[in-house]
Amino acid sequence: MELSALSALSPLDGRYLRKTGALRPILSEAGFMRHRVKVEVEWFKALSRSGFAEIRPFSETASHFLDSLVENFSVDDAARIKEIEAVTNHDVKAVEYWIKESIGLQLPPELSRLNPRKVDVDRAITEELHSAAEFIHFACTSEDINNTSHGMMIKSARDEVVLPALNALIEKLRNIAHEHASLSMLARTHGQTASPTTLGKEMANIVARLQRSAKIIEAVEIMGKMNGAVGNYNAHFAAYPDFDWEKFSRNVVEKHLGLTYNEYTIQIEPHDYIAELFDAIARANTVLIDLNRDIWSYISLGYFKQITKVGEVGSSTMPHKVNPIDFENSEGNLGIANALLRHMSEKLPVSRWQRDLTDSTVLRNIGIALGYSVLAYDSCLRGLNKLEVNAGKITHDLEDAWEVLAEPVQTVMRRYGIENPYEQLKALTRGKGIEKEDLHEFIRQLGLPQAAREELLKMTPASYTGIASKLAKKI
C-alpha cells in the first residue's frame, strides 16, 4: 500500500499528522540525519581552526559551503544517505560518506554501484576541502555524532514545541482561574460534598503544579560528549598527544552545538539527563491526566457546558449527546506518552559495560513519546476552549448543601469552649443534608457571644470559601 496519512502505521503520522507535524523536522529520521551532518560539519570546521599543521583554517567561502550542507539539507539528501547505508549497513558512516560525496570526493569502490550524485561545487572549494577530507569524522566514534545529535534534537523539541504547547495550556488555565476566581463551588473529597472552594481556585491549583513542572523541564541540562570510543580520547591523543583535547571537545559541544559538556562517559553519553527530562515531562503529563479526569467529571455534573459545532455528532444513535472527547483523547494519549517516557527514563541510563545497542532502537522513539505528549496538550487545550461555565448549576448545587457549614460552626464552638462541638454537628449532619432553617435553629440555641452567633448566621455555603478567590487571582 502506498504510504500516506491513511496508510501510516503510527497515528502520529496519519490521523494526527497536523497536530504533531512541528516535531517531524526535528525528530524524524531525516531530522536525525540533518543533525548528524551538523555535528560532523562543526567538528570538521573546528579542527581546521585547531592549529594542526595537516589542516589549514577554512576560507569563509568553504565554511559557508559546509554550513549550507546543514541549512539546505533535504529529504532527498536523507534518501541518498539511506542509499549509502544500504551498502555500509552503518548509518553514521553513511553520513560521513555523504559529506565526502557532497564536497566532490569519489566514494569507495564498494559503493561504486550507486549512481554518483552530481554535485555542483566551486573548484576552489573542492580543492580546499579535498586536502582536509580525512579530518571529517576525525577520531570520532559513532556515538560522538549520535549523542550530540540527540541532544540538539531533544533541546529543539523541548524549547520549540513541547514547552510552548505546555505553556499555552498553562495560560488558558490561568485565564479561567482569573475569570472565575470568585465563583463559589462545592468541593468534593472522596466524591462527597465538602467545604466550598471556587472554580478559579481549582484551576489555579493546576496552574501552580504545571508551572513548577514547566520550570523543571526547562531547567534540565541537555548534555553531550565527544571523547571517543570509550570516553578517554584514546585515538585523539594517539594522533596529537600534546593537544588539549578536553578543552577542544568542550568548546565544540558547548559553543557550537549548544549543549552542556559531559566529561565522564563510556562510549555513550549515559543518558541520565534524558531520564531527568522525560521523568519531568511525565510528571507534567500526570498533572494533566488529573485535570482531564476532573474536567470530565465536572462536565458530567453539568458544571461545564461544551460549545457545539454545526455538523458534529456526539453519538451515532443518541442525538442529544455532546461527549467530552477532547479530554478523553488527551487522557488516553498522555497514558501512551508516559508509558514510553518512563520506559526510556528507566532503560536508557543502563548499558552493558562500555556500550550495547539496546539504547539505539529505543532512542528512535523519542519523537513518538513527545508526539503523544504534544497531541494530548493540543486535545486538552481544544477541550478547554470549548468549555462554557454553567454558573447556575454550580450555584444551585452549593445552595443545596448547607451541611458543609457544619465545619465552621463546630470550629467556632471549639473557640468558645462549648462541649462536644464536633459530636453535636456530626449528629445533626452526618450522612444527610440539612436545610438552612435547621442549621440556623441549631446556631441560635448555642451559648455563643452575640457577635459570633450573628457572623455564623450570615454565613452561606457560597460565602464560606476562605481565601480561595485571592489565591486564584494572584496565580
From TrEMBL:
- In which pathway is this protein known to take part? Purine metabolism; AMP biosynthesis via de novo pathway; AMP from IMP: step 2/2; Purine metabolism; IMP biosynthesis via de novo pathway; 5-amino-1-(5-phospho-D-ribosyl)imidazole-4-carboxamide from 5-amino-1-(5-phospho-D-ribosyl)imidazole-4-carboxylate: step 2/2
UniProt superkingdom: Bacteria
Keyword check for Coiled coil, yes or no: no
Enzyme Commission number(s) from the entry:
4.3.2.2
The Adenylosuccinate lyase PurB C-terminal domain sits at 351-465
Q: Which family does it belong to?
A: Belongs to the lyase 1 family. Adenylosuccinate lyase subfamily.
Q: What is this protein called?
A: Adenylosuccinate lyase
Could you read off the lineage of the organism from its UniProt record?
Bacteria, Pseudomonadati, Pseudomonadota, Betaproteobacteria, Burkholderiales
